């Protein structure tokens, strides 16, 4: 059976008792909750679902203290605390007020936990204004929620998207090759496969004006497979030349909070390799699918194990990758086909850091099988600093089988056959010589990042906002904006002309 890459595996089980627990929690005041014992996973899940359905997000800082504390106790006893005033996401040189705000957090935790500062601090970022601390007491959460200059509190609770029998670390992953339907590509010179949806978005016509040369795209995902030559030594193959691909790793594959052993840049999932292909696979002479910006440079970061940012080290890996790409003057675009149902403080801070460096950040609107009918755009695509993209079918504006839509979507990409949900976009596979299909808002995002590279290469002196304006003007609905699909399908030819 053909596979669709999921951005979020939304298959979760809400027990009948959870609704009762949700009503009980929501009917009580924070003060009464604070006196309760440790909440169960089902009780925490019920609270989370209630917040998502009512507010479209989850803010742990405003949650009842007992909910926050219980979530922390179920997830390693570590919380992340963002400090400073509203909007102070990062600082290269910290003002005395910020230093004081951080020290106040450490003093609160030290006094409540009766531990020294060295033992409670698990991570202290040198650019983003947050610190990770270990806690064990409900009183610590209560004191932090009452403190001044705290922007957010995050737990690393993961059981909302998982069954209670343990974590599943393969959301969106596939490494097996697939047979590609002959109607889903056509052969172009020098013997490359052109994916069927490129013609819909006039990508091949746009190549008469731009192929992405001179532009560097950053990719934050699960890395690039060491077994795929066309994304390695064969990156300059066929009609692709004079460019580079670089691979880095910021993800730590370890359950321990204090581990610092970076796991390396190589993809162990398959999702990142597929996204790299959609963006920049070479216009090869090997009979393999070509990417949108086949002459662009690519800098890929393995920031996560899969596409769901639930793990402590995944969030830290993505945050560090955003900072690193933000600091590179040659990187213009950052593609992120990863996300989470609710906001993550340190990732949000890092997005704002990279945005402040002028990067065009393209993010997936969401792909799931469990809550597309009631949940809108996921994080970080939900942020105003990102460009949110989703996928649709080839029979009009009908979202793909598992794609999210909503008012925060900016653009759409056609990426699924209406008659067969398994026929999506052909890309090069995890191993050299292999091909597979990839779908969802993930491939829609990578395709949009590739089109942005074509536009920027055609107009190298433009700013991010000018390039984004070009994309908007090429949208099917421009100058209007659709309530679910933003500016609609991008016309790549119009965007580069």
Describe this structure as you would to a colleague:
The chain is α/β, with parallel strands linked by helices. It has helices at residues 16-26, 30-34, 41-55, 65-73, 96-113, 117-120, 138-146, 196-200, 203-206, 271-280, 312-326, 345-356, 440-458, 464-473, 492-496; strands at 78-83, 121-124, 130-134, 150-155, 185-188, 192-195, 216-221, 245-249, 297-302, 331-336, 360-364, 386-393, 411-416, 425-428, 435-438. α13 packs across α14 (464-473).
Shape: globular
User: What is the ordering of alpha helices and beta strands?
Assistant: HHHHEHHEEHEEEHHEEHEHEHEEEEEHHH
Strand segment count: 15
- In which order are the strands of the major sheet placed? 8-9-7-10-11-12-13
Largest sheet: 7 strands, parallel
Distance between the termini: 41 Å
- Strand content is 15-25%
Low-confidence stretches: 1-24, 26-33, 163-168
Taking Cα atoms only, what radius of gyration do you get, to the nearest Å?
22 Å
* Average pLDDT figure: 91
Class of secondary structure makeup: alpha/beta
Number of helical elements: 15
Helix content: 25-40%
Task: Summarize the entry for a quick read.
With 497 residues, the protein is of the alpha/beta class. The protein has helices at 16-26, 30-34, 41-55, 65-73, 96-113, 117-120, 138-146, 196-200, 203-206, 271-280, 312-326, 345-356, 440-458, 464-473, 492-496, and strands at 78-83, 121-124, 130-134, 150-155, 185-188, 192-195, 216-221, 245-249, 297-302, 331-336, 360-364, 386-393, 411-416, 425-428, 435-438.
